[in-house]
From TrEMBL:
InterPro entries: Pirin (IPR012093), Pirin_C_dom (IPR008778), Pirin_N_dom (IPR003829), RmlC-like_jellyroll (IPR014710), RmlC_Cupin_sf (IPR011051). Residues 169-264 form the Pirin C-terminal domain. Residues 21-117 form the Pirin N-terminal domain. PANTHER family: PIRIN (PTHR13903:SF8), PIRIN-RELATED (PTHR13903). Its cofactor is Fe cation. Pfam families: Pirin, Pirin_C. Gene3D superfamilies: Jelly Rolls. It comes from Aeromicrobium tamlense. This is Pirin family protein. Fe cation binds at H55, H57, H99, E101. Binds 1 Fe cation per subunit. The keyword Transmembrane helix does not apply. The keyword Metal-binding applies.
């Protein structure tokens, strides 16, 4: 299993070349997943609006967590929800779904994270679903407070649906050293959301993600000022995945099929109301065969 290491972010436009800039740490070349978490985008703080037209997904769950700003989510299931800071949206794509996300309201600061979870083979071809969780478990200790997005942490369990053993927590830390119990069967990632953090004594720069290998039952986090971090973890995902654009499959052929279905506006993905016929077209397939993501570290 990979030793602990720091994954530095890369800047990517969300929803097109002129889209909202996000800082992406997963997937990385060395570590494609942490548990079933396979995609970590951190956006803001910024006044750039989120304007992401309908686009498709297969084989995954999307997890949206705003820290500042409001986001309107629409999907092909008929959902039309305004997501507020401190609330969670979780959408399960199953074999096909489409959705859009737009900043809601007047201009203002946007800040948050968007995450993907790879679905296991047993459920990845099931029906699509959407969950909105306005009341998540709150936890606190001396000098820190948190919210359990998914899974269980510090004696509290989220009602958000997961398909593999996972944990996702926002932690707000006051200056000092804080120790937390971990599930030693999980691998973990600590995202430095709004400032640098020391993870087990190791300095992790702002926006970077620290990978923590399985076997750790307790972890110390240290900060010099009030700081938000995201703790993500799960049992190592035992299935190989092929990940391209907005799709997670198991083979090159499956991705090609999913892309062609989207370009044909196949019923598989449904229709998102409120945007007319506007959608994000799929990019061209690469000129090489897609291969499974492999851990290289």
């Amino acid at each position: 299993m990979s030793p602990d290491r720091t994954i530095e972010p890369r800047e990517v436009p969300l929803g097109g070349l002129r889209g909202l800039k996000v800082h992406r740490t997963l997937p990385s070349k060395e570590i494609p997943l942490i548990g079933a978490w396979c995609f970590v985008d951190h956006f803001g703080p910024t006044e750039h609006r989120m304007e992401v037209l309908p686009h498709p997904h297969i084989g995954l769950q999307t997890v949206t967590w705003p820290i500042e700003g409001r986001i309107r989510h629409r999907d092909s299931l008929g959902s039309n929800v305004v997501l507020e800071p401190g609330e969670l949206n979780l959408m399960t794509s199953g074999d096909g779904v489409s959705h859009s996300e737009f900043t809601e309201g007047p201009p203002g600061e946007m800040h948050g994270v968007q995450l993907w979870v790879a679905l296991p083979d047993a459920t990845r071809r099931g029906p699509a679903a959407f969950e909105h969780h306005p009341d998540l478990p709150r936890i606190e200790g001396e000098g820190w407070a948190g919210v359990v997005l998914v899974g269980s942490f510090a004696g509290e369990t989220s009602k958000a649906t997961v398909h593999t053993p996972l944990v996702g927590v926002e932690l707000r830390l006051q200056p000092g050293r804080h120790e937390f119990d971990l599930d030693p069967d999980f691998e973990h990632g600590i995202l430095a959301v709004d400032g640098a953090v020391r993870v087990g004594g190791r300095a992790v720069p702002h926006r970077s993600l620290e990978y923590v290998a399985p076997g750790r039952a307790r972890l110390a986090l240290e900060v010099d000022r009030p700081t938000i971090v995201m703790l993500l973890g799960g049992e190592p995902f035992g299935e190989e995945i092929v990940m391209w654009w907005n799709f997670i499959g198991r083979s090159h052929e499956e991705i090609v099929e999913a892309r062609e279905a989207w370009e044909a506006l196949a019923p598989r993905y449904g229709h998102v109301e409120g945007h007319g016929d506007q959608v994000i077209p799929a990019p061209p397939m690469p000129h090489v065969r897609l291969r499974p993501r492999v851990r290289r570290a």
